[in-house]
Structure formats: C-alpha cells, structure tokens
Amino acid sequence: MYCGREAYAKLCRRLTLMTRIKTFSWILCLFLICVYPRLSAADYSKFSHATPKHQAACNTCHKPPTKDWTKVSSFPDIADYPDHDACVSCHRPQFFKGAKPPICSVCHSKTSPRDDVRFAFRNPATKLQFNIEFPHDKHQDVIAQLRFAHRPQGYYNCTICHESRTPTFKAAPKNHASCFNCHWKSQEPVAANCNGCHKLAPTPFVLTDSPKRISSKFIHEGGGEKKQHIAECTTCHINITKAASLRGLKPDVPITACTECHNKDGLRQDLSKELLAIDKNRAFVCVYCHETSVGSLDPPGSHYRIAERPPLKRKDIK
Ligand code: HEC
Ligand code: HEC
Ligand code: HEC
Ligand code: HEC
Ligand code: HEC
Ligand code: HEC
Ligand code: HEC
Ligand code: HEC
Ligand code: HEC
Fold first, then answer.
1. For the chain, which residues make up each domain, given as ranges?
2. Which residue in 26, 39, 95, 240 is deepest, having the highest Cβ count within 10 Å?
3. Contacts by 70-73, CB closer than 8 A, 24 or more apart
4. Proximal ligand: closest to the CA of 270
5. Ligand 8, residues 236, 289, 302: which to mutate, most atoms within 8 A of Cβ?
6. Higher confidence at residue 200 or residue 24?
7. What would the pLDDT profile of 242-251 be if each residue is shown by its tens digit?
8. Atom from ligand 7 closest to the CA of residue 120
C-alpha cells in the first residue's frame, strides 16, 4: 500500500511537471506567434525617446556642439542629428537591411550609401517629444543684470526671450539663442544636459505659436495713437516673476491691469458700458476685449467689482 502511494505521488508529480512544461511551451509558442513579430515589426522610420533602450543619458547620442554648427548657427549649438555611432551598437541588423533601410530616414531625407543629406534638425514634419523646463522666478536677478547690456530700451528684459511675433502677439523662445549664452559648459543645466531643460512629454505633440487667450482683442503694441499698451511687462503679467515652472502657466493678466485706463470716471467706461448693456439685454455679447466664446458667458466677479456692483448672472436678468 505504502509503496503504491509513493509511486502514485511520483506519477502525480511527473504529471504536474509535464503540464507545467507543456504550459510553458504553449506560452512560449503563443509569445513567438503573437508577440515576437510585433516587436520585430517596429517602425524603424520613426524614433521614439520613450523606448526604454533609448533612455540612456542624453549625451550618449547628442554631443554638443555638433560638427559643422557654424553652417546653421551663430553660436555653438546642437544643430544636427546624432552620428551613426550612437545607433549601430544596437541596430546593426536595421542598418544593414536591404537597399533602403527604413532606419536611415529617421535622419536622412534621401537613403543611399553615398548620400548624407539630412532633414533639418529638428525635423519640422515630426511631432515634438519634449516639454521645456524654465523657472521664471530663478531668472529674475540674472536677467535684470542684462538690463543695460542687451538692448537700448533696457527695461523690457523679457524681450530677450519674448520678442514681438506680430504687433498683437508676443513670441516664445524657439531655439537655444536665449539660453546658451549662460547655459553652456558651467551653468547648470549645461548644454549636454538636455534633460535639464527638455522633459519627456506624456505624448508627442505639435508646437503651437501662442497659448490660448482670454482677451483675444488685446494688442501688445496697441492702445491708441500713443501706443499706451507698451509698458514694463510685469505691470500686467504681475505673477510671472514668481512662477517656478511652466506647467499650467498662463499669461495670467488680471482685469485690474486694464481698467485704470478702460474704466475710469472722466475717461473711458468700456467695461461698465458692456455690463449695462447686459442689464438691458441678457444675450448681449461683450466684444471689446473678448472673442464671442468668452464675451457671451457670465461676466466674472472681478468685472463687477471694478464697476462697484454686486455680481449678476444672465439668467437672473429679466
Ligand atoms: C538613443 C539615442 C538618443 C538619446 C539617448 C537621446 N536622443 Fe534625443 N534624439 C535622438 C534622435 C535620433 C533624434 C532625431 C529624431 C527625432 O527628431 O525624433 C533626437 C531628437 C531630439 C530632440 C529634437 C526633437 C524633439 O522632440 O523636440 C530633442 C529636443 C532631444 N532629442 C532631446 C533629448 C533629450 C532631452 C534626451 C535625454 C533625456 C535625449 N534627446 C536622448 C536620439 C537620442
Ligand atoms: C542601447 C541599445 C539601443 C541604442 C543605442 C539605440 N536603440 Fe533604437 N531601439 C532599441 C530597442 C531595444 C528598440 C525596440 C525595438 C527593437 O527591439 O528593435 C529600438 C527601437 C528603435 C526604433 C523603432 C521605434 C522606437 O523608437 O521604438 C527606431 C526608429 C530606432 N530604435 C532608432 C534608433 C536610432 C536612430 C538610434 C541612434 C540615434 C538608436 N535607435 C539607438 C535599442 C537601441
Ligand atoms: C541618427 C541619425 C542618422 C541615422 C539613423 C543615419 N544617419 Fe547617416 N549620417 C548621420 C549624420 C549626423 C551624418 C554626418 C556624420 C559626420 O559628418 O560626421 C551622417 C552621414 C552619412 C553619410 C556620409 C558618409 C559618412 O558615413 O559619414 C552617409 C553615406 C550616410 N550617413 C548614410 C546613412 C544610411 C545609408 C543610413 C541608414 C542605414 C544612415 N545614414 C542612418 C545621421 C544618421
Ligand atoms: C530666458 C528666457 C525667458 C525670459 C527672460 C522670460 N521668459 Fe517668459 N517664458 C519663457 C519660456 C521658455 C516660456 C514657455 C513658452 C512656451 O510654453 O512655449 C515662457 C512663458 C511665458 C508666459 C506664458 C505664456 C506662454 O507662452 O506660455 C508669459 C506670460 C511670459 N513667459 C512672460 C514673461 C515675462 C513678463 C518676462 C519678464 C519678466 C519673461 N517671460 C521672461 C522664457 C523666458
Ligand atoms: C497692458 C498690459 C500688458 C503688457 C504691458 C504686456 N502684456 Fe503680455 N499679455 C497681456 C494680455 C492681456 C495677454 C493675453 C492674456 C489672455 O488673454 O489670457 C498677454 C499675453 C502675453 C503672452 C502670451 C502670447 C500672446 O501674445 O498671447 C506673452 C508671452 C506675453 N504677453 C509677454 C509679454 C511681454 C514680454 C511683455 C513686455 C515686453 C508684455 N507681455 C507686456 C497684457 C500685457
Ligand atoms: C542671463 C543668463 C541666463 C539665461 C539667458 C538663461 N539662464 Fe537659466 N539660469 C541662469 C542662472 C544663473 C541659473 C541659476 C539660478 C539659481 O539657481 O538661482 C539658472 C537656472 C536655470 C534652471 C534651473 C536649474 C535648477 O537647478 O533648478 C533651468 C531649468 C534653466 N535655468 C533653464 C533656462 C532656459 C530654458 C533658458 C532659455 C530659455 C535659460 N535658462 C536662460 C542663467 C540664465
Ligand atoms: C538651458 C536649457 C536647454 C538645454 C540644456 C538644451 N535645450 Fe534644447 N531647447 C531649449 C529651449 C528653450 C528650446 C526652444 C523651445 C522648444 O523648441 O521647445 C530648445 C529647442 C531645441 C531644439 C529645436 C531648435 C530648433 O532650432 O528648431 C532642439 C533640436 C533641441 N532643443 C535639442 C536639444 C538637445 C539635443 C540638447 C542636449 C544636447 C538640448 N536641446 C539642450 C532649451 C535647452
Ligand atoms: C477692458 C477689457 C475687458 C472687458 C471690457 C471685459 N473683459 Fe472679461 N476679462 C478681461 C480680462 C483681462 C480677463 C482675465 C482676468 C479675469 O478673469 O478677471 C477677463 C476674464 C473674463 C472671463 C473669464 C474667462 C476665463 O476663462 O477665465 C469671462 C467669462 C469674461 N471675462 C467675460 C466678460 C464679459 C461677459 C464682459 C462684458 C460685460 C467682459 N468680460 C468685458 C478683460 C475684459
Ligand atoms: C495705460 C492705459 C491703458 C491700459 C493699462 C490698457 N489700455 Fe487698452 N487701450 C488704451 C487706449 C488709449 C486705447 C485706444 C482707445 C481708442 O482709441 O479707442 C486702448 C485700446 C484697446 C483696445 C482696442 C484695440 C486697440 O489696441 O486699439 C483693446 C481691445 C484694449 N485696449 C484692451 C485692453 C486690455 C485687455 C487691457 C488690460 C490687459 C488694456 N487694454 C490696458 C489704453 C490702455
């Protein structure tokens, strides 16, 4: 009896082992059938920084300044793609695949063993993978020291980074010209530390020229014949010098920055006039400062406070 039970147990163990091996080989087969082709079918014409093996230190691939930077930039810059060395250690098979390996088109506009023409760097046709890190607060003192060095009109320090894109809109930095005179070899983040300024975005995105506005009618270089809107930037952007990050940063201009001129007794009454128009017609749209999408909403409390009136909702007006 005892022996029999032993043998039975042995058989059981072998059976379980066999099923385990079987399950294992099944999983392996399934993996080979379903998963492996997907891995090897990666699209080698598009490079992603999010791929785990591509997350080595930035300067294993990007080595500033790039060769021939003088051709495209007035200062030492990262003006070109990484060299072949940065890839072949892992991608030998993809580099020597067929007559026109797809991987070449990550950088080259023409694929041939003799042609080295490349897309512009950064390729305008591809989405961006990084957000910028820029703490306005930490730069106030250093930028102020540039006061008289940079421009004759001195006090608009912000313009070293935010030039006029049009009379209405201010631009934001598009390249390293506004960073690298300070951040090169010694001031962190140094040029080779791309990661100090570029942070991998959750998903690739298309760069927009400007953030979405609330006061879309405002013209930076406007304000009548005397161009009264031209003033020290921080008189309107009052919180920017305290901003530690760009995440969620908005132009953030309070209406009090406007109403000393646009809503003053004896002067203009642009806001009060529009508030009164709503009293008479609750469907009235305020278009002096806003686009219809904003001007047809309820005026916020900030607007009624300026006019020294209690806040009202359109639906409560008869
Ligand atoms: C394995 C090599 C490799 C590494 C490591 C690498 N890059 Fe790149 N990077 C590339 C290639 C190739 C391109 C050009 C393809 C493209 O534009 O996506 C590129 C393009 C870029 C661009 C321009 C395109 C864009 O998305 O704005 C930026 C910025 C950039 N890299 C920043 C970084 C930063 C920051 C790091 C470190 C966190 C880094 N790279 C690490 C290979 C690499
Ligand atoms: C440390 C190894 C390593 C290095 C270095 C490396 N890659 Fe990759 N790359 C991989 C791995 C792993 C994958 C995932 C797919 C695969 O197994 O081929 C991949 C995938 C890719 C893909 C497919 C899309 C993607 O990003 O997942 C492209 C394109 C690519 N690499 C281009 C490059 C280029 C160009 C360089 C050099 C600038 C480079 N790689 C450097 C390991 C590496
Ligand atoms: C990560 C970007 C990148 C990829 C991918 C890439 N190249 Fe290049 N290639 C470069 C750069 C940068 C140079 C310039 C190197 C220099 O001048 O030192 C170059 C130079 C060349 C040259 C000129 C001769 C030489 O070797 O310097 C040829 C030819 C060339 N590449 C062909 C190819 C082909 C074919 C492929 C695909 C198998 C390929 N490249 C993939 C970036 C790339
Ligand atoms: C050294 C460069 C630099 C300086 C100097 C600088 N900024 Fe910026 N600022 C930036 C960058 C980079 C962004 C982010 C732009 C983006 O998101 O595209 C930004 C964003 C902004 C924004 C938010 C709108 C937007 O485009 O996202 C405002 C408003 C702004 N800055 C105002 C100012 C003002 C006012 C000053 C002067 C006190 C100033 N900045 C100084 C680099 C700078
Ligand atoms: C009289 C007030 C005022 C002054 C002075 C002012 N701005 Fe603005 N700025 C605004 C308003 C209003 C907006 C739009 C805000 C909104 O609608 O959300 C704006 C938007 C911006 C934006 C976002 C891009 C755009 O144009 O929509 C940037 C960047 C900016 N300002 C930078 C500056 C800089 C740099 C200066 C100084 C040279 C400056 N501003 C001076 C009121 C002002
Ligand atoms: C006039 C010189 C100057 C310019 C121009 C400048 N920076 Fe800076 N930056 C500094 C200094 C100095 C510090 C250190 C400030 C501190 O720690 O108080 C700094 C700090 C930083 C930090 C924070 C580093 C940390 O450890 O927290 C980032 C990120 C940064 N700069 C990004 C940028 C970017 C992006 C640009 C261009 C859009 C730029 N800077 C332009 C001088 C400059
Ligand atoms: C001191 C901050 C800082 C460092 C360090 C830095 N960048 Fe940038 N970079 C910026 C800013 C700011 C922009 C302009 C905003 C944008 O385009 O996203 C920019 C733009 C770029 C562009 C587009 C430029 C153009 O002319 O189209 C490329 C490509 C780029 N960076 C690559 C890199 C790479 C690669 C590294 C590391 C070798 C690096 N950057 C290091 C701040 C920095
Ligand atoms: C002189 C210019 C001016 C006039 C006139 C004006 N606004 Fe505004 N409005 C602003 C400014 C600046 C802001 C941003 C600061 C704030 O919220 O108070 C704003 C903010 C708003 C917002 C909040 C939008 C958001 O996304 O946070 C609404 C809604 C709005 N206004 C509706 C109105 C209505 C309705 C009227 C007509 C009675 C009106 N505004 C008249 C300048 C104006
Ligand atoms: C220093 C005074 C002053 C300040 C502050 C001011 N404005 Fe003006 N603004 C004017 C004058 C003067 C005009 C010309 C009015 C006219 O000719 O009818 C004007 C005109 C405008 C116009 C009509 C288009 C144009 O530019 O001619 C809009 C819209 C406007 N302002 C919005 C604003 C907003 C929004 C703010 C606050 C962020 C603001 N203004 C702050 C003085 C000012």
1. 46-126, 128-242, 256-316
2. 240
3. none
4. 8
5. 289
6. 200
7. 999 999 899 9
8. 27
